[in-house]
Amino acid sequence: METPHFYGYLSGRANLEILATLDRRDANGAIDEVLEQVGLADRAKDKVREYSYGMVQRLGVAAALMRSPRLLVLDEPTNGLDPAGIRDMRALVRRLAGGGITILLSSHNMLEVEEICRHVAIMRRGRIAFDGSMDELRARADDVQYRLVTSDDALAADVAERVEGVHHVTRRPDGLRFDSQPAPVERLTVELGARGIGIRQLELPTTALETLFFRLTETEAPAPEEVTA
Questions:
Q1: Which domain holds residue 193?
Q2: Are 23 and 96 within one domain?
């Protein structure tokens, strides 16, 4: 589910009633239940064209719940939502998963995956590069990717490659990229200062999970088993 479509001139409840008719089932009780589940019970009589984008997304989930699924597939469910809509959708996904429904969530947002999912699979060129629990994924994502901009990136790269615990040093137009834990980064900054190299910028552009995702999907060599959530 990325962009569900409904009749805008009808209410949310009326749209679900049409779907129930198409399924040839008496779903009046089910309609009330699913609207309550997705937090739309108080807006059930409002026309869908008056709904926010986030509400339409939740109505799409309600439509899927009408069939009492054991598996619910959600494709980028928070895409295009404002912060409040993202919060509500993530809370809904957690509630549904807690209620016994298996949720297959497709997302490029690593923070979202980390916040919601317990099991993760990462795809690379149509093949699984990783498949395991979130704890297993975190264990493999010990190093975090840093971005460093200095007064002399060429010399800084040479220094970084000699610091124990600093890995995968690469030069890019926007500075150096490398993987590390905090302690080696501290040693690197001290060494750069001793060499007279000024540090203009040092940041964490990605989370640990994002670092691992890029490592698994951007390498040319066959990647070890991994991601999706």
A1: 139-218
A2: yes
pLDDT tens column, 184-215: 999 999 999 999 999 999 987 666 677 777 77
Q: Which residues lie closer than 8 Å to 85 by C-beta, 6 or more apart?
A: 52, 53, 54, 57, 78
Same domain, 91 and 161: no
* Ranges of H-type helices in the chain: 12-22, 28-37, 53-65, 83-98, 110-116, 134-140, 153-161, 182-194, 208-218
85 located within any domain: yes
Give the Cα separation of 6 and 54 in Å (integer): 14
Question: Would residue 113 count as lying in a domain?
Answer: no
The amino acid occupying position 165 is G
Total domains present in the chain = 2
Give kind and range of the element (H or E) at residue 179. Answer: strand 175-180
For residue 129, give Cα distances in angstroms to 113, 120, 137, 202: 16, 11, 12, 30
**What local confidence, expressed as pLDDT, does residue 220 receive?**
47
CB–CB of 141/113 below 8 Å? no
Pairing outcome for strands 119-124 and 127-133: antiparallel
The answer, yes or no, to whether residue 118 has pLDDT greater than 70, is yes
Record the tokens describing residue 82, joined without a space: 């404002």
Residues 6+ positions from 113 with CB-CB distance below 8 Å? 105, 107, 120, 209, 229
223 pLDDT band (50/70/90 cuts)?
very low
Q: How many other C-beta atoms can be found within 10 angstroms of the C-beta atom of residue 122?
A: 23
What is the rounded CA–CA span in Å between residue 150 and residue 171?
11
